[in-house]
Amino acid sequence: MVRFDLVFVTYNSSKWVKGCFESILRSNFDLAKISIYVTDNNSSDDTVELLEYYSIIFKEKKAGFEIIKSAKNLGFGKGCNLASKKGTSPYLFFLNIDTTIDTRTLSDLETKIEASDSAIGAWELRQYPSEHPKIYDPITGYTSWCSAAALVVRRSVFEGVKGFDKNIFMYAEDVDLSWKIKCLGFHLMYLPDVKIHHYCYQFADEVKPLEYTNSILNNLLLRFKFGSLREIIAGHISFFLLFICSSSFKNSKRKLLTGFLSNLPKIVPFVWWKITHWNNLNKYKPSYFAGWHYSITRMGVFHANKFPGISPLISIIVRTCGRPLVLRETLLSLRNQTYKNIEIVVVEDGENTAENLIKKEFNDLNIVYYCSGKKTNRCSVGNIGMEKAKGIYLNFLDDDDLFYADHIETLVEAFEQNPEIRIAYNLAFESPIDILSKDPYHYKEQPYALTFSQEFNKALLCHHNFIPIQCVMFKKELFIELGGLDEQLEVLEDWDLWLRYSTKDDFYFVKKTCSIYRVPSDKRQNDIRHNLFIKTLPLIREKQKFYHLNFNGAEVAKMIEEIDAINDRKFIPGKKLIKIAMKKIAKKLTGREAF
Q1: 119 FRET partner, CA 20 to 30 A, in 64, 72, 178, 487?
Q2: Secondary-structure breakdown of the chain: helix, strand, coil percentages, each rounded to the nearest 5
Q3: Fold of the domain spanning 4-198
Q4: CA gap 126, 332 in Å, rounded
């Protein structure tokens, strides 16, 4: 049994109080197992009166409820510290007041915590509709830091790191807490299937002055505590460039400068913390300063997540070839999908090496396994998978690639919102890896790189493939109508398939990073792959001539003009080369020039 102390901080928050606490009252969780502690930072509206009203209601439900009235605004971190000292439950659940929870949030959270081992120090819940964009491990759920908007921490761990840093008034206090927890050797876990609703933004790309200035200034402070000298210097150079060049809102430069000067005295305790915790920092260096972020981020911060109301069967086609230990990670990422009505069609090229693993470790999943028996090629096994699949929608995921937990959810929701479309895609990270050991499978990852973030454009697709194979979900009827992968191709088979499908349908673009595909980091292996691509390119170009007959030449020429206009406004590598190639394609489509 898990008991929670729910910790809130309020400041003129009356418009949020009712929604937040009513959602907790609707929970299917036993309210006798929770206690609520609220620090009010001297609100001047009727926040306290509303809190007192709900205090009576919760106490009637056998839940604890205590209000701590501060004579001044302590900020978020200090307010949380004050409230957390009042309780005794083994788990502290920090939750923003501008949130609501689902009926099952607390019970699902209890299940996740009970299933976690003692190495997990904190758990972060997923925020709807705007999911926090930082990366996490799609297999383990481990993340580099946790947002305190919906964060559960073991009380013993929280007290072990002495809570939130009192020197941080608001913003980045959760990063600091997370990294202190990691310095003690604990993991942080992200829970994509346990959600809350956070009403933090009124519209996409909203700039909040307090968040903007405090996030930047506190980033500089954290560099003193956790960063290297190089990271400290780089942060300050970025700050002064930002100060000189940018003005995000009225008086933003003045606020940044004022805040910077007022933060100077805070540097001393940060440096002192670093000196006194040097041994822990040497054991684990938690910092990763990606500009003003604290990790690589997934694109799609303002993508409006909405779990689909429909639940068609989705078939995920996994091509594999004699490497079950590699396949295991792919299947684990599929097990972690938030969307559950999936069929996994595993097709092995060659001898049966994977069936044993599947039966032993993944009998909880709906997996259909096929084996070619003798070596064919990746296109042949892909076509077998598409033929055998029973789902209405198909999606490839090769055995060395991974889905984030929301990949299927995101694309199914796109089909629900746009019933006229038959094919949709999202974005992926490219992950160069060095394989250190094949048994056990162990590898070293290089920093992720984002693949093309490109709205669908037929003309551009004729020039190069900007859609990795695992990013695309399409109706099986397209396969029935237009066929599958060309079995004469060794590589670029996905590009050829997208070109063929684009003769009939435009692709719907979901601007969110939802998967990872791995490539070798070894230069020699990449050169071999590149030479194979060059060898295959003439075959693709030849096939394109037939696909072009289905394109409207004038329409494609117009698209190319739009691309040229974008290129003129924004420099991209190889701009001239792409423009020349695109114009040649346009002329070919209108019959005026051959390749």
Answers
A1: 64
A2: 45, 20, 35
A3: Spore Coat Polysaccharide Biosynthesis Protein SpsA; Chain A (3.90.550)
A4: 19
Quote the CA–CA distance of 91 and 87 in Å, as a whole number.
10
Confidence of residue 557 (pLDDT cuts 50, 70, 90): low
Burial bucket for residue 419 (CB in 10 Å: 0-12, 13-18, 19+)? exposed
Kindly report the number of other CB atoms within 10 A of residue 420's CB atom: 7
pTM of the model as a whole = 0.89
Facing residues of 438 across strands? 441
Top CATH class, 314-536: alpha beta
CA atoms within 13 A on the CB side of 230: 3
91 by DSSP, 3-state: which?
strand
The Cβ of residue 90 has, within 10 Å, a number of other Cβ atoms equal to: 13
- Distance between CA atoms of residues 81 and 204, nearest Å: 32
Q: Is the pLDDT of residue 57 over 70?
A: yes
- Helix intervals (H) in 227-266: 229-245, 252-263
Closest CA to 336 of 405, 253, 239, 398: 405
- Residue 133 to residue 406: CA distance in whole angstroms: 12
Asked whether the predicted pLDDT for residue 595 surpasses 80, the reply is no
Torsion sign over Cα 224, 277, 154, 21: negative
Token pair recorded at residue 454: 């490109």
Distance from C-alpha of 564 to C-alpha of 526, rounded to nearest angstrom: 31
Could you give the angle at the alpha carbon of 380 between the alpha carbons of 321 and 515, nearest 5°? 60
Angle formed by the axes of helices 229-245 and 252-263, nearest 10°: 150
- Give the mean pLDDT of the chain: 89
The distance of Cα 280 from the centroid of its chain, to the nearest Å, equals 29
Domain boundaries, the chain: 4-198, 209-283, 314-536, 552-595
Give me the residue label for tokens 């009576």. 56
**Quick check: helix, strand or coil at residue 143?**
strand
